[in-house]
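Hi R.,

As promised on Friday, here is the backbone we talked about, encoded as structure tokens. Could you run it through your design pipeline when you get a chance and send me back a sequence?
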């Protein structure tokens, strides 16, 4: 994923031939920033469990679920 912090746009590459732009960062998101920071590590961890075809989908789904949870209630970090 590429992040444009100025406009708040995340480009999510959903396959090798297509990409979709999600305009979901209307406000500063701790989950989104953390996800972007650790995305490569998440992909490696998921890749050690599932096949290569499923890695990107699983990591993106994890991000979406985390982001939606953050929208419902601010996540407290201790």
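Update: got your reply. Pasting your designed sequence below so it's all in one thread:
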């Amino acid at each position: 994923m590429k992040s444009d912090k100025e406009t708040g746009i995340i480009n999510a590459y959903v396959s090798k031939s297509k990409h979709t732009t999600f305009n979901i960062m209307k406000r500063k998101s701790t989950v989104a920033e953390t996800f972007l920071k650790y995305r490569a590590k998440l992909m490696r961890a998921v890749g050690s469990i599932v096949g290569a075809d499923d890695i990107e989908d699983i990591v993106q789904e994890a991000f979406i679920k985390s982001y939606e949870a953050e929208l419902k209630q601010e996540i407290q970090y201790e």
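One thing I noticed while checking it: Residues 1-9, 11-26 have pLDDT under 50 and may be disordered.

Thanks again,
M.
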